[in-house]
């Protein structure tokens, strides 16, 4: 049996009230909020967070592949999935692939994961991660919708699965919008919103209707339907046209979090699995130049409910989110205002040499005295001075601030709000120096003895290459 073994999600720390957008541009006010990634976050860093949430209690070395789905991939000629797999400390002998250029890339990646597991006896588990950070053009209606987030599904072959994948069906359609040209457009464009809505309704209805027909099911047989939508009115029309019973269609995302793009169908599915009914049939559908529909069935209700208790999911992250107080902060996060930025250096040799410590987060432990230290740079233990007695050890992603300083000068620029540079004693051993993110009023809120958790973030683009490292943040509740 092939299905979903685990799931995870990630939402950034901040929410932007849509009222602030309306006031900034004197637009009609749209209710609700949307999730907004910080300047040091992108689709890759959010995918790492979602992957960590999905793999709670699961050894990353047991995963046989990673598929990354996004319309906002970090590179166009470099595999982002391989970097995500490296940071998650997976094996080297796995398959990785990026699925991109369509909002249904996430559901397409799931179907390809199923096919891959069926076709290769050596592949049993594939982690599918979807994330998007689409930049909306200021002073447009896109700004009300586009939001940031990530989600992950672990597709596996196993006799005991919480949720089985029983069938999938796809349609392809060469629609005329929306689009973004790779070489010319910074923001998404479209001809006519009404035509976009027409294409959406035709494809999403067709794909879900056909998969029900193929499996001799009726709308009343479906316990939950998690389908992508970017307009609450369209969501309602789909539910009525499909004749779903009240409460079947999942709609608890747009007004609270916004249009998450590629991971939205995953997030809606995760929401539907919080209170699963025994043996319930569940539909998940993605849209983008066609559509995918995936039919699933609850196989172990207790296991699904346990996943909800042990993962943050989107509900756990949502509880720790905070609303921004001004629109300018949103512009700064999105780096919409062009500024001269300090040019930093980068080194392919350094990245290659330090991958185990910088990305995979390994330190070393002295076999003579047991001291754990980071990074792996010296031959001798700094406590007992023993030479060449180190063994590699995985470091924890949580710790306590030993001491800190507040630095106003960062990357050649003077910042009014200082960046905390924290010396952290990691749980289980090891002391590291990291910058802090997701902190407000650091002069008041950073304290010695404060508990923090580590998060993988974008540092800078030295040598026009995206460089990443770990930062710390106040605890948000990660297991």
Description:
With 479 residues, the protein is α+β, with helices and mostly antiparallel strands. The protein folds into two domains: 2-334, Thiolase/Chalcone synthase (Peroxisomal Thiolase, Chain A, domain 1); 348-354 and 397-474, OB fold (Dihydrolipoamide Acetyltransferase, E2P) (Beta Barrel), CATH 2.40.50.840. The chain is 28% helix and 30% strand. The protein is built from 15 helices and 20 strands. β10 and β11 form a beta hairpin. α2 (43-54) packs across α3 (80-87). The chain is globular, with a radius of gyration of 23 Å. The mean pLDDT is 93.
Sequence-ordered SSE layout with sheet pairings:
Blueprint: E1 2-10, E2 14-17, H1 18-25, E3 33-36, H2 43-54, E4 65-70, H3 80-87, E5 95-100, H4 105-119, E6 125-133, H5 142-145, E7 148-157, E8 163-172, H6 193-214, E9 222-227, H7 232-242, H8 254-257, H9 264-272, E10 281-287, E11 290-298, H10 301-310, H11 313-319, E12 322-323, H12 327-334, H13 348-353, H14 355-358, E13 362-366, E14 372-373, E15 390-394, E16 398-410, E17 413-426, E18 431-435, H15 442-445, E19 451-460, E20 467-474
Helix pairs in contact: 2-3, 6-7
